[in-house]
Amino acid sequence: MSSVNLSKQHPDIYKQLMAFSAQGDAAIGEAGLDPLLGELVKIRISQINGCAFCLRLHTRDAIAKGETSDRLAVVAAWWESQYFTAQERAALALAEQVTKLSVPESRAWDDGSLTDRQASAVSWLAVVMNAWNRVAITSHYPVAP
């Protein structure tokens, strides 16, 4: 077995993940966070996980929502740039914490820039995005020009 397309083998589970993903996106908006921040979180998680399919998808989505090429170019090293707000930096740090599951838990992101509701929304979005990365990578979704 070289690879299995998970969505084709178990389409009902895939549909549930799509619904879960929609709830994660909705939580970002309901928590008062910019949907563009959600795309940055998805991009950063996909960079960490090495998911080319999701990187291309969410980079395109971010551009469609008005993201700049300069910010996209430095999101992989967001902590070294001055392009991101305190809230964006906190959300990116939290998303990295959820993705990497650091033990002991690091709270470097917790500088007051995110409310509890916003931190919960970013955490759920990170959980969803990590699931998507694993589906795309495991299924070997094609990424070609």
Can you offer a commentary on this structure?
- The protein is globular.
- It has seven helices and no strands.
- It is mostly helical.
- It has helices at 6-9, 11-30, 35-49, 52-64, 69-74, 86-100, 116-139.
- The protein has a single domain, classed as AhpD-like, CATH 1.20.1290.
Keywords:
AhpD-like, Carboxymuconolactone decarboxylase family protein, mainly alpha, CMD-like, globular, 145 residues, AhpD_core
End-to-end span in angstroms? 26 Å
Q: What percent of residues are in strands?
A: under 5%
Tally of individual domains? 1
Count of individual helical segments? 7
Q: What class do helices, strands and sheet pairing give?
A: mainly alpha
Whole-number average pLDDT? 92
CATH topology name: AhpD-like
CATH architecture: Up-down Bundle
- What string, H for helix and E for strand, traces the elements in order? HHHHHHH
CATH class (first level) name: Mainly Alpha
CATH H-tier superfamily = AhpD-like
Query: Spans with pLDDT under 50 lasting ≥5 residues?
Result: none
Tell how many strands the DSSP assignment holds. Answer: 0
Shape: globular
Main sheet summary: none
Rg over CA atoms: 15 Å
What percent of residues adopt helix (DSSP H or I)? 55-70%
Domain Carboxymuconolactone decarboxylase-like: 11-96
InterPro entries: AhpD-like, AhpD_core, CMD-like
Organism: Prescottella soli
Protein name: Carboxymuconolactone decarboxylase family protein
